[in-house]
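Hi R.,

Quick one: here's the Cellular retinoic acid-binding protein 1 sequence you asked about.
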Amino acid sequence: MTKPNYSGTYHMVEQENVDAYLTGLDVNVALRKIVCMLKPTKEIIHDPETGSIKINTITTFKNFSMDFNIGKEFTEDLRIVDGRTCQTTVDWDGDNLVCVQRGEKEGRGWTHWLEGDKLHLEMRVQGVAAKQVFKKAE
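And here's the predicted structure, written out as tokens:
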């Protein structure tokens, strides 16, 4: 079965519970306030043939890049986010991209899925979930 191609540029249009998620990652209050005010853009380059995906998250504060192959574990440097590294695997669950980040924090990871021209992101850590929705640029 063919998987969806996530390639595109997406602008955030809504978010919920991000402060609680960042608290679960032990991010300090000043940085949490800044992050909750940001409106990130995601640029995704996805090669369905090879399973290679690059996700660039761009903000006016800091940028973050994640480059991986579906189903292959890698060491992810999250020091820009919360000062940690973890062992990360992204795989398919149906048409959803599901990320598991093994490290100091239990239950850490995220899920991306597409609905029409919207890219959804649910981020999880220690039983707390935050959601963001991005609209594909025309």
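DSSP finds three helices and ten strands in the chain.

Cheers,
M.
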